[in-house]
Design a protein that fits this description.
Chain A contains 3 helices and 9 strands. The first copy, chain A, is of the alpha+beta class.
Amino acid sequence: MPPAEPRSLGQRIADTRALLIQPAVDAWVATASQARGDGQSQPYLVPLSFAWIDERAVLALASSSRTAKNLVQHCIARIGMGPTRDIVLLDCVVEQVVKVADAPARMGDGYAAQADWDPREEGDGYVYVVLRPERIQAWRESNELPGRAIMRDGEWAKG
Amino acid sequence: MPPAEPRSLGQRIADTRALLIQPAVDAWVATASQARGDGQSQPYLVPLSFAWIDERAVLALASSSRTAKNLVQHCIARIGMGPTRDIVLLDCVVEQVVKVADAPARMGDGYAAQADWDPREEGDGYVYVVLRPERIQAWRESNELPGRAIMRDGEWAKG
């Protein structure tokens, strides 16, 4: 079967937005540890529940988790979503880390509505990490590699 | 629907081995860049074709790619596979980086047989990166988090 025609920019953005708000969607979240003295840092990768609220990627994390610690120290995450032949990749920076109990209802309700759990029911120790995407790429087959940047510098690309 | 009963160790290993040799399987490969002077290093994450040859994860990479450069400098990769509710995670170290043209036939043929492309047809500039898994974890739902380490220190767990 020959690959499908590459999607238009508008279609890629529409497909990506549909994925970002999908209920119970998970994301592969890659972070890096603080470097040791020799400049080596450890890549870390976990699958996490994901919510898209007000154009931000919101993760709920135990503040003791390695991903939370890496993000507090480093402020950079790269998030992979979708099956691996229908990729969405987000390069994000940490905008805010807020204790679950202190978060506005909009964030807590929005997270619980999209994710399949509610960290407010877990007691203390959880935070929402709010990530601002700076770049988003979306592609399926190699014929979609050109034009895969659908967001640059925090702005959705214009057709 | 209540979650299924947790799988036995033997079943997890069998399921994981079946996934590792699946044709045209992709993997999310997380690496970290060399740290800058301030100790910050950049997490990197890409989906890549994957082959499992002689108990090693083999990736074929353009030697100019960021993942190849990170692995040559850092020697550590964390690889996520499977849909995000049926996870396999491999913590690996680089064992060998070999130019595609210099690789033994067993490696080139094995890679081409499992992956859906053959880097030997791409001319110069590609390498096989051979990664030795030190730890493998496998789980589906949260009831499978206990016992998720199915390989430790390079050895499959014993039942």
